[in-house]
Amino acid sequence: MHLAHYLGLLHRAQDVLADALLEVGQAHADEADIAQLCSQQAQVCRERAEALRPFAEHYSEEAPDEPERLHSELFRGAREGPLGVLRDLQDLYLMTAECDICWTLVGQAAKGLRDDDLEKVVEVGAAETSIQLLWLRGRMKQAAPQALVVAD
Amino acid sequence: MIPDDPWGERTPYAPGSSWPVRVDSHRVEEPDRWVQSASVLHSNGDGIDIGVRDGKIVGVRGRAVDRVNRGRLDPKDVYGWQANNSPDRLTRPLVRSGGKLVEASWDEAMGRIVSRSKQLTAGQIGFYTSGQLFLEEYYTLGVIGKAGLGTPHMDGNTRLCTATSAAALKASFGTDGQPGSYTDVDHCDTIALWGHNVAETQAVLWMRMLDRRHGSAPPAMLAVDPRDTPVAREADVHLPVRPGTNLALMNGLLRLLLRRGWVDLSYVAANTLGLEDLERVVDAYPVPRVADICGVAPADIERAAELLGTADRLLSTVLQGFYQSHQATAASVAVNNLHLLRGMIGRPGAGVLQMNGQPTAENTRETGADGDLPGFRNWDNPSHVRELAALWNVELHTIPHWSPPTHAMQIWRYAEQGSIKLLWISGTNPAVSLPDLARIRRILQQDGLFVVAQDLFRTETTEFADVVLPAATWGEKTGTFTNADRTVHLSKKAVDPPGEARADLDIFLDYAARMDFRDKDGRPLITWTDPESAYAAWQKCSAGRPCDYTAITYDKLRGGSGLQWGGERLYTDGRFNTDSDYCETYGQDLSTGAEFPAEHHRAKRPDGRAFLLATDYRPAPEVPSDDYPLRLVTGRTIWQFHTRTKTGRAPELNERAPSVWVEVHESDAAALGITEGAVVRIESPRGAIEAPARLCGIRAGTVFVPFHYAEEAANELTRTGWDPVSKQPMFKLAAVRLRKTR
């Protein structure tokens, strides 16, 4: 059963996203709302990762070795300036999207396994992830005209 | 008017009876005529007559016929008018020449603004206006910005005072618009004041509450405020919560209401959406946890819940204690939740007043000078934008509607980054009133930022301007404005403005003419020429929307009381403005401010039901540390308004509160060796000020500094940061330390 690999993938994706959120928030501390919400959402990601841990441990007993190229790498450090903010938020968006689809797939597995406890964790995590996506998308939409059209 | 008692003599009255008249007045000479107006030195909207003799203002008196004040005056109105006659009024435009501001003609000053404007694109121009201009002026400014230039960068200092009120009302009820009425004070059996020191912010409303408290069957009173304010002292239950924990308290109180069955289930079932989610969230806030987070006694939380849960006619008022925090909208929405759960909305005595901080803040929200679309229209609803495009006869794409309007704090950020190159400031003094003043000063003096400042006096802000425009003020121009309970007042011109000073409306109209804004058929975009024709244009724009002004004409406003739009109370039938085609917003996530798309809203089929919305408490982004162990809250005194440009020039007001102070709890003072009157240095990570200490009833660990004083400005200390939904800055959440200096 390969569920453990996907739980590991999601767990790590949440942790990596939390790190990236913190890095982007600190790099753009002058964007007060981005700094504040990145820090808040990093905390949310950590909580989600923590909630997954017992399930990852439980299912890892039945898992074969981890396949190659499981984890993707979307973030290579924060950038500068208005365009940099936009690009960094876009990276965060893609990383969150990866979490989003992982939640969907893990949710499907939980249903197949009739694992109600995992389903509950997935429900909360998926909902919070979709809010993150919405926030990032809205913030980028707001920033884009100024960054792409107006800024020098 | 008794100087030591700003609320004057009591005129007690019984529930359900009308508030007795008490006419306050003050004059230095006998007027030869009285001119109808209303108050502009707070947000209450009191009817006032201006006394005029030989072309000069010589006094004021309250209008006995007015529904808002029944003749009473706030002490600021008693004396504040003297600022009009101040010899240091700006009387000619100023332009910067060789680094200095020098007098210039209107042609020269406006010419400079127009030529700079024409060099720039719409996205490089921002407007930062006020909560103190008149409706006609805001609407004109809104049309200039949205349909003339097409800039999304319009907001005002109302972002600092009233943004959360608007956001909370939109979130719960679908559109902005105050549900309650001041007459709810006459009928209620319980008043809950949430972070609202009404005694000092709306003195006349407090007189009304005190008169009920002194009459038969007085209302019970709950106050939530970390300070020992006059309201807190009067209240039956006072919860001095730790700053930044309002949402935890609200969640705990809502949980108790649900657990104890203090809920009108049939009202909730018929008229609301979201009970299950609300229950799930608030269930995590049992009393001991809330008591721990908020730092108040569990028994007091229980008493508060009982008071709220057993009231038959509950009136709530909400202000800056809730609005200027990190979870501002969520906590204010929770007050709406409370009223929805109890079915306490839309009937006499049962209502919510999400208050405003400034006299005309309501009109920035209605007309779109705060960035929203006029008439509480939804920027994300193409048919709402099409209505405006048709009304103004401009192309749809001229009107910025591709994302939420740029809020004030973001406008300042764009100016800081250099992408906004012209910032037009009208009727406000951001160099004293915005958070983190060192940063604001840096922005204002940046190369490449062209600053226009339009004001009555030279201020800390005008000193950074490239062009200063002398404005006429209250009493010197005609126009309307609307208070926190939707009462519209006409304020007539009583005297001429000094020198060459001009009404803000005339300044904006002059700009529009010089810029030659045209509609899509090549005709002038702005066709009105004076206050009454501007008002007529606004009436047309407001038609069919919640704030429909078509029935309120200048004629009807002349002579009698102010008139409310929307009737005495909104939502009397339990139907709210949440229909997807009608609402002002498709909703936002309360924890991040993320905007929900239209389809999300439509799928819920709200169809006139109000939203019960809840989210978890989170600690403030800046909490006390070893370095900065105290929490700073800023606020007002009854004797001053804003940065004192007017009240500081009225001797009777200024001598009551001439300079800054800091309120400290005795235990904190003792630990630092600070005695009453000792000058202390207050430091935050942003800056430092000095102020004499007042040892008084404030929550231990919390200090208070009034924000009025430019010389030792509280905002040297405050932090750049805002509520994610309303974007209102969190003035009440900075960590500081104190040191005795001498």
TrEMBL record, chain A:
- Name of this protein: DUF892 family protein
Please report the organism this UniProt entry assigns to the protein: Paractinoplanes pyxinae
Automatic annotation (TrEMBL), chain B:
Matching CDD domains, A to Z? MopB_CT_Fdh-Nap-like (cd00508)
Residue ranges constituting the 4Fe-4S Mo/W bis-MGD-type domain according to the UniProt record: 32-88
Query: Which controlled-vocabulary keywords does the entry list?
Result: 4Fe-4S, Iron, Iron-sulfur, Metal-binding
Domain of life (superkingdom)? Bacteria
Q: Where is this region: Disordered?
A: 1-21
Q: Does the keyword 4Fe-4S apply?
A: yes
Do you know which Gene3D superfamilies this protein is assigned to?
2.40.40.20, 3.40.50.740, ADC-like domains, Dimethylsulfoxide Reductase, domain 2
What's the protein here called? Molybdopterin oxidoreductase family protein
Q: From what organism does this protein derive? A: Paractinoplanes pyxinae
